[in-house]
Amino acid sequence: YHGTNQDPEYLLHEAVHNVGFPLLIKATMGGGGKGMRLVYTEHEFLSALESCQREALNSFGDSNVLLEKYLIDPRHVEVQIVADSHGNCLYLHERDCSLQRRHQKILEEAPASYLSSSIRQQMGDMAVKAANAVQYVNAGTVEFLFDSTSDDFYFCEMNTRLQVEHPITELITGVDLVEWQLRIAAGESLPITNQEDVPCIGHAMEARIYAENTRKGFIPAVGKVWHHSPPVQPNVGSVPVSHGNRSNAVKTKGECIARVDTGLQTNDVLTVHYDPMISKLIVHAPTRLQAIETLQKSLNSYHLAGIPNNISFLQDCLNHETFRTAGGVHTGFLEREEAYFLRKDCGEGGGMEDEWNVDMLQQNPLSVAVGVFGVLMKLDDRVGVTHKSGPWSNLSGSWRMGGNEGRFRRRLIPLFSEREENASSPLLSTIECASNQDGSYEISIVSHPSSSHKEDNMNENTAVTNPGQTSLYTIQGTFDCDGKMTILIDGTKRMSFIAATNEDEDKSTFDISLWSSSEVNNGCTYSAWNMSFRHPLPAFASSSRDSDNFMLEGDASTERKRSVKSPMPGKIIRLNVTEGEDVKEGDVLLVMEAMKMEHVVRSPLDGIVSTLKLDVGDIVEDGSILAVVEDAIVSGSDDEEKESSG
């Protein structure tokens, strides 16, 4: 349905009697996944419609929607067209955009290598017919949903502009789409007017770099980017990428190139007022597998610190067997494989897996020790020092005479982010460091639980979260000015990393981020992790800083009372409950808006809303307490105490 009657009851009638379920409610003026809701049943429809219209109005200034039949697990294929004012219209092949989350694209590629030549031509011809039907003049994109079980495809929408992913079309055709737009606007004919003269060379892919927390439902992230180092110089076009001499590398017969488009710079602050996409990484290679390898290599060298991001998640996608098979991915792929990606994010296996979004308490102790080594090297002014000239060289470290007992010692206090809502109170960890005369550091990590800790909630696979266990390492090495850190662990294991540090005087913190990668079985293992410490130097001391501020607030004596915190900065746009109201676990407490998208906040348990000090329109910060929900039993006990004391 795409009519003008937008009365909710009329739309419900159309949904039930003409469109059918499941269906999509889509903003007529929408795009980028905003103003879109998937509805499976009739009873969900009106609430989803209200939310969709509100988001559409906020994002596009128009609340009108259309209704579409929802296909289960289709491929999302779009065709790039260009048309001039002289009657020429061409299609520049197609792009596959099936890998999506929240109806927003993550990875795109061109061409869609799984399509038969006949289907490819049919799609192209239909796209040209659609453009000609409205006498379209410009570059545009006609989007289709492709059902691989029947080889049928359905018109989805037409975007009358360049898409975010247009560079991959430029790379396989050699066409500068922006230049062609300017020529069309100037009244010129298309430089190519014969469809058969449009080239299709090699394979291209684009990865969208988002500031978001992939472990928490891809929630957008905000904050200061204190380190940004793309794999190639950004905004200068395509740059050749070398694959080196790896024996397991895909053989390359042509040039592999990479390109980064971004407006992000180190020390930029990301806010809630813009889309979370901060960069595009585009690659081109002779074949699809070579393009995957080039993209993996480029992501390995993309170093971003200060905010959660999806770089390691993109690596997991590229390594997935289904993605590596042409045509294997459909629009529901990430939902179907959620368990796989969550397992990867949690670092299953106990190694140095992706730990960027993981609380330090859950990190492998060796990962923590490596980060501590980098912090100590920076504190001791040993970054860039490679030559030892006598015992007074910085390379010797902060050693003292007097044997083991006289060694210079330093204690680092880790600052913990909030744990998952259903986790117990966090552990308290002690990190003791001692400097040796040979320049190495002895690093001891001891974990012990807080008073309210429960062992059955801990991750038994990680030593840092094993109460009372000590992990001891002796680490020596170098930390170059360009960020390369080479270390020797316990005299036997040599490792290399890229590291970046940040000292925040306002917050009295010391941050370090590290990146490492290796090739295993023709795939790529990528590690990125981040740690924060209270700054140990007196110049950074702050009486207002308290590590307790980083722990989950709540009732330390019981798990039956829960503070509901804001998952991000944003604006309260709807309150579904009031103080004193009974709620069930999963009930919607409120709706907030951030980065022009709505986010639902639900109750963590059955109980009573004991505190709710908010109004519609309030702006809240990340981590702000939105409400407190108490178990009915706890609330009743409090009331009895008040009555007895009265």
Question: What is the C-alpha radius of gyration, as a whole number of Å?
Answer: 28 Å
Number of helices: 12
How many individual β-strands? 34
Strand content: 25-35%
So what's the oligomer here?
single chain
Helix content: 10-25%
Major sheet attributes? 9 strands, antiparallel
Mean pLDDT: 83
User: How would the global form be characterised?
Assistant: globular
Unreliable spans? 245-253, 347-359, 417-427, 450-465, 542-559, 642-646
What's the arrangement of strands in the largest beta sheet? 8-7-4-5-6-9-17-15-14
Beginning-to-end CA distance, first to last residue? 63 Å
* Helix/strand/pairing category: alpha+beta
Can you walk me through this structure?
By secondary structure, the chain is α+β, with helices and mostly antiparallel strands. The chain is built from twelve helices and 34 strands. A nine-stranded antiparallel sheet has the order 8-7-4-5-6-9-17-15-14. Strand 4 (75-83) and strand 5 form a beta hairpin. Helix 1 packs across helix 2 (45-60) and helix 6 runs antiparallel to helix 7 (311-319). The chain is globular, with a radius of gyration of 28 Å. 39% of the residues are buried. The model is unreliable at 245-253, 347-359, 417-427, 450-465, 542-559 and 642-646 (pLDDT under 50).
